[in-house]
């Protein structure tokens, strides 16, 4: 399940995307591939199907991060930091900040006793 589509779907979910059509539009993934990957991510308990309604339309289902999926966010942030350091000629497209303080954060290996910011305490800001 570790193909590029899976990583891109998880990235979009981490950004807050939940709707099937939004995943398709954002990453340009073929329908059959998206359906397959979403099923696998639900089976792996990284995403869960959640009902939603828009206005008076019928109930549809979106995909929300589970605790397992949310914890994958650290991996995504590490990959983004690596990509920014080696391939982003104009700097990063995003900044990660602490939700409670607004201070800019970075992904790093730190001593064990260093307080951490929970992944749920992180906010993504587009530059």
In short:
This protein is 42% helix and 17% strand. With 127 residues, it is α+β, with helices and mostly antiparallel strands.
Mean pLDDT: 93
Record field, number of beta strands: 4
| Form type | globular
- The neighbouring-strand order within the major sheet is 1-2
Rg over C-alpha atoms, rounded to the nearest angstrom = 16 Å
Order of helices and strands: HHHEEHHEE
If helices are DSSP runs of H or I spanning 4 or more residues, what is the number of helices? 5
Percentage beta strand: 15-25%
The share of residues in helices is 40-55%
Structure, explained:
The longest helix is centred in the middle third of the chain and has 15 residues, at 73-87. The protein is an alpha+beta fold and 127 residues long. The radius of gyration is 16 Å and the shape is globular. It is built from five helices and four strands. A hairpin with a 7-residue loop joins strand 1 (47-52) and strand 2 (60-65).
List keywords for this structure.
two-stranded antiparallel sheet; 127 residues; 5 helices; alpha+beta
Walk me through the topology:
Elements: H1 4-15, H2 20-27, H3 31-43, E1 47-52, E2 60-65, H4 67-71, H5 73-87, E3 94-98, E4 122-126
Antiparallel strand pairs: 1-2, 3-4
């Amino acid at each position: 399940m570790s193909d590029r589509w899976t990583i891109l779907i998880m990235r979009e979910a981490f950004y807050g995307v939940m709707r099937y059509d939004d995943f398709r539009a954002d990453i340009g993934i073929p329908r059959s591939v998206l359906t397959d990957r979403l099923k696998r991510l639900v089976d792996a308990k990284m995403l869960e199907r959640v009902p939603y309604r828009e206005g008076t339309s019928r109930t549809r289902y979106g995909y929300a991060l589970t605790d397992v999926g949310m914890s994958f966010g650290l991996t995504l942030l590490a990959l983004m930091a690596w990509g920014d350091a080696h391939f982003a000629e104009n700097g990063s497209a995003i900044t990660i900040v602490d939700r409670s303080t607004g201070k800019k954060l970075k992904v790093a290996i730190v001593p064990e006793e260093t307080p951490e910011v929970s992944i749920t305490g992180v906010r993504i800001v587009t530059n």
